[in-house]
UniProtKB/TrEMBL annotation:
<keyword id="KW-0694">RNA-binding</keyword>
<dbReference type="GO" id="GO:0000398">
    <property type="term" value="P:mRNA splicing, via spliceosome"/>
</dbReference>
<feature type="transmembrane region" description="Helical">
    <location>
        <begin position="6"/>
        <end position="23"/>
    </location>
</feature>
<keyword id="KW-0472">Membrane</keyword>
<dbReference type="InterPro" id="IPR047575">
    <property type="entry name" value="Sm"/>
</dbReference>
<dbReference type="GO" id="GO:0003723">
    <property type="term" value="F:RNA binding"/>
</dbReference>
<keyword id="KW-0747">Spliceosome</keyword>
<feature type="domain" description="Sm">
    <location>
        <begin position="36"/>
        <end position="108"/>
    </location>
</feature>
<keyword id="KW-1133">Transmembrane helix</keyword>
<protein>
    <recommendedName>
        <fullName>Sm protein F</fullName>
    </recommendedName>
</protein>
<dbReference type="GO" id="GO:0071013">
    <property type="term" value="C:catalytic step 2 spliceosome"/>
</dbReference>
<dbReference type="InterPro" id="IPR016487">
    <property type="entry name" value="Lsm6/sSmF"/>
</dbReference>
<dbReference type="InterPro" id="IPR034100">
    <property type="entry name" value="Sm_F"/>
</dbReference>
<keyword id="KW-0507">mRNA processing</keyword>
<dbReference type="InterPro" id="IPR001163">
    <property type="entry name" value="Sm_dom_euk/arc"/>
</dbReference>
<keyword id="KW-0812">Transmembrane</keyword>
<dbReference type="InterPro" id="IPR010920">
    <property type="entry name" value="LSM_dom_sf"/>
</dbReference>
Amino acid sequence: MAVSILYLPFFITTYLAFLRYVSSKLSLYFETIPVNPKPFLNNLTGKTVIVKLKWGMEYKGFLASVDSYMNLQLGNAEEYIDGQLSGNLGEILIRCNNVLYLRGVPEDEDIEDADRD
């Protein structure tokens, strides 16, 4: 079934409008909700976190404290380089300007790690 040349511009404009509509809905769907960092960090204090540095290293440990500059103190810290455990470091301080991101570790993942040790 061939489409007449006369209807082709209509189909193209309709299709482009559909794509614009879908992309606008998807961008709303994938947007993240902004979170105020200070309450976020205060809620994670005393919990296990993973901190990724700008340079690629990751540190996993419990968040002992956070200061007003958002420097992080981790206890029982482990260093991971390229996803592999590099070593146990104990207590460390991470200067704020080195942090790429910080995320909490779900409690069930924390329990699995303890079972492996």
